[in-house]
Amino acid sequence: MVESILERIARGHFWDFHGGIHPPEQKTLTSTKPIKPLTLPKQLIIPLQQHIGREGDLLVVIGDKVLKGQPLTLSTNPMVVPIHAPTSGIISAIKKSVIAHPSGLSQLCIFLDVDGEDTWRKRQICTDIEQLTNSDIIEKIADSGVAGMGGAGFPTHIKANSKPDINFLIINGAECEPYITADDLLMMEQSDAIIDGIKILDKLLTPAFILIAIEDNKPKAIKALKHASANIEKIKICTIPAKYPAGGEKQLIKILTGQEVPSGKLPIHDGIVMQNVATCFAINEAVRHDTPLIRRVVTVTGQALNKPQNVWALLGTPIKFLLEQCEQQVDEFEQQPVIMGGPMMGFCVSSELVPIVKTSNCILVPSKKEMPSAFDKESSEVECIRCGQCSDVCPSQLLPQELQWSAKAKDYPQLEKLNLSDCIDCGACAYVCPSQIPLVHYYRIAKAEIREQQQLDLKAEKAKIRFEARKLRLEKEKVARQEKHKKAAAARKAAMNKATPEATGAKSAVAAALARVKAKKAAKDSGKIVDKTSQENLKNTSNSATNTGEDQKSQVAAAIARAKAKKKSNTNKPSKSIETDSIDNIDKEVEKSAATKQTSSDDKKAKIAAAIAKAKAKKLSKSIEVSEQSEVAKDKTAEKSASIQQMNHDDKKAKIAAAIAKAKQKALEKIKTESSVEANESKTASLLNQPIPEADQLTTPSKATLSSSSSSSRESDTEVKATPALDKKAKISAAIAKAKAKKKLKEERNDSSK
Amino acid sequence: MNIIIAILVLGAIAALFGAILGYASVRFKVDADPIVEQLDSLLPQTQCGQCGYPGCKPYAQAVADGEAINKCAPGGEDTIKKIADLMGVDVQPLDDNHVQGDASKSNRPKVAFVIEEDCIGCTKCIQACPVDAIIGAAKQMHTIIIDECTGCDLCVAPCPVDCIEMRELPDTIHNWQWDLTSIPVKQLD
Asked: Measured on CA atoms in the order A445, A448, A454, A455, is the torsion positive or negative?
């Protein structure tokens, strides 16, 4: 079969792809003038991402002096290619700037202030590529940042590293789009370098045949390449009939080999690799001259320019500079559209500061007479008349009008059935449409939304997996915790049993320790009133320790009572008093934080205090909201609320006590560690080991308890002061406890006054 | 006599088929309701619990059992339409109790954001996150893994210092969409 293909190529008979159009070429505007080297612009704007894939990691910072060819980013994965400084200069900024994308959105760019010296970094010129291994060459290509210069900018080193047997290496010099002559001129002027680049690819890929495809409207380029490749038998120059879009990958493969690449497959599966001529030139520069991809040929054309021509533009050159060099005719009345890419597939750029990137091959500035549609703000679209011309010209053999209807209806499953993904955005359908429907525009929107939907689906799948994993983890942790608790309980029981027959001293110590743990728990859960008849309590604690059953019951009862009280208190607080209270409170907190700042000039403390104040404010504002809502219902439940308020009192008292107890415990623990007096331990135990408050205690007049609590807090303060070198933490916690006690006091006063 | 033979033959056939059916029902038993899986795949998997169920799968199960199909706020009308198609019921408007915020506001996807200088490291948001998208430890500043956040806003309420807010994802060229309004479609009279 391969032989028959070669026979056909030798005879100059090629296959034809379906559809295609013959738009006016307009190439003579620029094809007759040589490529012009430009002077250096003042500033270059180099986007970090210039191709498909991701951006690399930055290697430079603002203020760095860079030399020409110095890498600016580092490639971190195979889909990333680095970028390089196109000339020497100083990095003046690294910030977001508008890039060459139809959205006109900004991306991270490096701003390079050109110093005008154009000093190269050290280069290693390679004279004999035969000495290099394939992996060396691949590495050089990757390090030089070569990406496909025809369209999408696929990283070249990946394409050049394909391992399966390659039948055909196709060099794409078709350049089918109107106006663009960049590849044409490059082939004319740099044919030897292109052939050298092809030789390197030949060494890497070892294809059976190398086909260079050039449209028949570029006779000079064909002649130059034929001359350059005269003594290489493997290379065949194929002159193909000019037709748009013959330069499309799949279309060109069909023309040259008659094979159709199936939908959703890559040509590599059929043993075909395609490279653009400009990419071959860049490969040669990278491997032989150690010159990274820092410049490219750009066709700057259109009838709105006085000097349309091809230029060697450094990557990062703003479009504005190119237009100045080519003498744009400034129209003061109307904003001139600037199109990046060709007239068929390009897009209007939103700013003249958009820089040239690796894939930009053409800047088109049409005059109004030349391309009136580009000036139209209003679309002149009318209804589809079902003429079917679009499907006649579609090179992918799709049904453009069906696609259009489905795209307008957002029927994405139907679009996928109609193989929208095979659309190459060539614009042939929109070109022939007598109703002037911007078909490609609809397809692009639909494609973007389908892609977005796919990403969302992926994300949802990921979220689901993470959710399931979390559920599993929580389950496991729960089981582990229960197991641990069981073990701990068993251990405790065993210890108790052991202790009973022993001496009373030891027993009381164990009992005291156990009681302490319990009391700590109880103090946290339900809150307790700290009594100072400590000596008696030692007995009590041993009692409570042994009567665990009763103890637990009363604990549960207390907890339930507390929960109830909390619920009620949330709904029944008088809103106004709370409001003022909260404000007072916050003020106090702020004052306190200020004070701490003054005394210790400690930033952290102030932050903590501020955070606490914020949290309290949030809590209070919530309760105010709730209480305001319940104000109306309050009258009805007046009777109830009386008893509830009583409960509130008790609850608050308990809270105060708990806070004080906590503060005391902390303070005492500190003392314990420092002075290590055993007596203290017993004291702590006695202080904390309180039985659950009984009914009569709960209903004691508030003043009595308050005085006791305040006195106890005072005592804790004196204790704290008495101990030398006490930790700051203890002080803070004591202060917080005090603040809490104060707040509660006030609330209670409000309540009682009511 | 003939009648008896007929009854016996028919009885034997009935017993045979009964046995086959009985065996098949045991042998080819489907454990889970496949409709639940299908429903689950339609839901947005934010695991936000706004429907009143602890996650998307429980809601899918509930819908399969006859729960209203219009309780998924993050999914919106699209999801309701898909569920209605699958379940063969009429499309209902989104339940009033489950409408998310102001409908007129932009519906760009949002993710949680921790105002890091205000974070006190309480870990409450970490416990609330259904997809473990928050990193942090006790008394250490927390932060959100944007790529993992589903935007369910379950972490906003538990924060004691209000340092979490929902922010719209910025427009990048990766999530940018062509603007339909840029192509005015002319109505023909």
From this structure: negative
